[in-house]
């Protein structure tokens, strides 16, 4: 046994982390998301096996997820940028307010209890799941993007929720852009780009936020970022991200949307029960 974990459990955890890394990369390219909704449930179980204290476990999952997503979002963005589908105006308007939102979310991680992050993850993941399962690409708020003030607010909210949930913000950004008349492919490409500043800022923020809790965290952690989790999942997810981007234009999306939506509902229920118990 190692740190109270049997060799068989370690094998299963390693296999799950590798599989989640591959799923993360595919999802990043296919849906313009970082895959944090897949990473966090896997990491949560891994850190539970390793007896990471409950009051910092969710924050460690979120910080590690953001770090893992960094190379994935970069590769995904570069692949989409080559297609010329990134909406540069959105990138300019959203990047700074998104980073501000991330900073506030990371600051909250240093003080807020883990149960709050579980509830937030459950709520946002459930909304995304409903959109995936029942949404219609023809839904519209308007035929074009709103003015600077509203766009700044959207960018801030995406950054804040991304930081609290441990995701790149791709799902939320994609929904917003499609509701304002942008094509799904342009929305995905732009969302992938926005994930780069969000995940970079989020990783740094969670490292700093976790430093006061360093004594409660497992070895090879820098604040709320596990270097072991990052070292296993990041190379895998980063490598397959470009394949997901190519698949986005070649295969039917509906079946994948349904499967991912159902997964999010299950993960939401799991964290909500844990937070309320």
From TrEMBL:
Keywords: Cell membrane, Membrane, Transmembrane, Transmembrane helix. It is found in: Cell membrane; Membrane. It is a multi-pass membrane protein. InterPro entries: TM_pro_TauE-like. The keyword Transmembrane helix applies. The chain crosses the membrane at residues 12-44, 56-74, 94-111, 116-134, 154-180, 187-207, 219-243, 255-273. GO terms for cellular component: plasma membrane. It holds the Pfam family TauE. Belongs to the 4-toluene sulfonate uptake permease (TSUP) (TC 2.A.102) family. PANTHER family: MEMBRANE TRANSPORTER PROTEIN HI_0806-RELATED. This is Probable membrane transporter protein. It comes from Pseudorhodoplanes sinuspersici.
